[in-house]
Write a structure and sequence with these properties.
homodimer, 38% helix, nine-stranded mixed beta sheet, alpha/beta, globular, 18% strand
Chain lengths: 387, 387
């Protein structure tokens, strides 16, 4: 297998983008990535997308995006793994370049969620859970993650204030990220006064509905070194791991963490020959505040049950022990489902290049992205490093 | 890259299977493939599926199938490329094994289409076309392929009788395939008396709505040779090619063929170091009778414009110059969208092993599968051979 570098990134503005179509979003982010890489062609591409069939009444989006991007007669494939669609697509692009089948591969994640009624978007999102045993009973994701939060509080004494600390931090980081959906600082009182969605989760514990896209260009590391326009440190993919778990939350052994995160991380650490102590910055799947607390424990940054305390103590702030979601995360930056896994990786590339602006983590050389689908039935962990 | 073998196949019964759920179909075909291969584990899996979101209100089906198959903590990824979802998923499995990332990979294609109203299934199918420029105008796939048929008739003198010859042959082959949806011989009169769907295409020119699943197990060729339970010739993947084209038919240079088929075949021939003359048997994407005529021309079996004559002359029968769709094809065997690309490959494996029963092509050593998505916006061509 060949070593693979990320030679281009494209990050679109996230938000309620009523003036842009799905095609616009996917094509703009892709063109930005191609321009950033300075490549003159692509050999193959992957489109990470969750539910275009129900959200925009369009399947078969991979050749569609290739078409509107101006590419014909290349392989273009859509990957769907719920909220982990983007990182699953990235994994395919990585394997395709590593295998030697293709040299220049585009991975774009995109989702257009705000062109339909919110109730319809929530219905679409619910299709990532077990429809027969969860969806038909009326439970949606806030309810599922509320069960996780309740159990985490019961077992470890995690507090409402600790959940809020995640939201406060991620809104603060998003405030300084020009691409983020929210540029609104929140404090504990705002959160305590926000509507209860599913006890104990309030509005500000939930990531929003978002339009957006992000893209990366992958190349063999040896070829990447020859690119003429390199104006930044080269970033390589050191490791990746993907794991599944039961589709239904009720069938898990434990509700206080996600086994698929731990397993995916184990694979990624092994492949990259890195240890948890080597990680300088991480983008984490905070679809709900409790998900970030579980993730930083499952990944090994903090012992199980101690994640809430760590966030409250500021250890995950930019400048803290391990900066988590300097981009603002799903909570503050927005969560265009199929784009999320790709933008997390692109955000880590920005950090490793030293291009993260006001949210730059000093001397970041190794970064990690964790992308979670459904209630943890799919998890992908990716480790990147400066060459 | 490592050479890759197909060491196991599982082909479910196709039809209106109201007693089985999507999970049942996908799991049963997968278990059959695992049993056929005699492997004791899988490292990774891919699920080819078109539109579970709209057909059965369930996305995130890759970890779901892994879960119901009894696998946890492995990578499981869904691939969607309309009617070419199955072969696109197969390509991913192939690349994953070839790359060295995984040793034993399951690829399963499945679709559950008959649990909703036919009008709703037709709506789902229409999402594989360009929703903004085709679907919203009211055109569906029979209409799009009718345009192709009309133009083919105009340019080359292809006749209504030649279209019928495709349906008669494929129903005849399906009649002898116990897994096929239709076991009903049709003659020219039946076809001429069947309802007009989109002029010139009548009911018997169209593939049906079908429930079904099929699966294959991939392994490195060198490892496959060590399997203890080999009771048949070993089949390896010699070449694969995938290509996209414009999503909308109106934007093509030509309506009388599919450029993506020609390009995908070119890549597959090159990778396999085979010539068209080496192919002994082919499974072709006959979603409509005209599609088979176009495909056998685009692949190079017959000159452009001569496909209809070739079928009428019996050259594509079992025992003819090049047997096309000995399984019965989509027309006779059925077309469970996401399963189709996988079952085509599994059917070719049966032929190369000499296990195709009454539809066996004598001395078949090299076979080809062509799987087409939408109106040709995605095409995958795969070449297999006996080692």
């Amino acid at each position: 297998m060949r070593d693979v570098a990320i030679v281009g990134i494209g990050i679109g503005k996230f938000g309620s983008l009523w003036e842009k179509s799905f095609r616009d979003l996917a094509v703009e982010a892709s063109l930005d990535a191609i321009k950033d890489a300075g490549v003159d062609h692509i050999d193959s591409m992957y489109v990470g997308n969750f539910s275009a069939g129900t959200l925009i009444e369009q399947e078969h989006i991979a050749p569609l995006v290739a078409d509107y991007l101006g590419y014909r007669l290349i392989p273009s494939t859509r990957v769907e793994n719920a909220c982990a669609s983007g990182s699953s697509a990235f994994r395919m692009g990585l394997i395709e370049v590593a295998s030697g089948i293709s040299d220049v591969v585009l991975v774009v994640g995109a989702e257009k969620m705000t062109d339909i009624k919110t109730s319809e978007a929530l219905y679409s999102l619910s299709l990532a859970a077990d429809r027969e045993y969860e969806g038909y009973q009326g439970i949606t994701f806030p309810g599922l993650f509320a069960l996780v939060a309740k159990r985490h509080m019961f077992e470890f004494g995690t507090t409402r204030k600790q959940l809020s600390a995640v939201a406060i931090k991620n809104h603060k980081n998003a405030y300084r990220n020009p691409k983020a959906q929210f540029h609104q600082l929140v404090n504990e009182e705002d959160i305590e006064n926000s509507p209860m969605i599913a006890d104990p989760l309030r509005l500000y514990d939930c990531s929003p509905i978002t339009d957006g896209a992000a893209a990366v260009i992958l190349m063999p590391l040896d070829e990447a070194k020859k690119l003429s326009n390199l104006h930044h440190p080269l970033v390589k993919v050191s490791g990746i791991g993907q794991a599944n778990d039961t589709i239904a939350l009720a069938q898990r052994d434990s509700l206080v963490g996600f086994a698929a995160t731990t397993e995916a991380a184990k694979k990624a650490y092994k492949m990259s020959e890195k240890k948890i102590e080597d990680i300088d910055v991480a983008e984490i799947h905070d679809c709900f505040t409790i998900a970030e607390i579980c993730a930083i424990e499952d990944l090994g940054f903090f012992p199980k049950g101690k994640g809430g305390e760590a966030v409250e103590a500021g250890l995950t702030e930019i400048g803290g022990k391990i900066p988590i979601n300097p981009s603002g995360g799903l909570k503050g930056k927005g969560h265009p489902v199929g784009a999320t896994g790709v933008v997390q990786i692109a955000n880590i590339v920005e950090q490793l290049r030293g291009e993260a602006g006001e949210n730059q983590v000093k001397n970041a050389k190794v970064g990690l992205a964790q992308n979670l689908g459904g209630s943890g039935a799919t998890v992908v962990v990716t480790i990147l490093e400066v060459v």
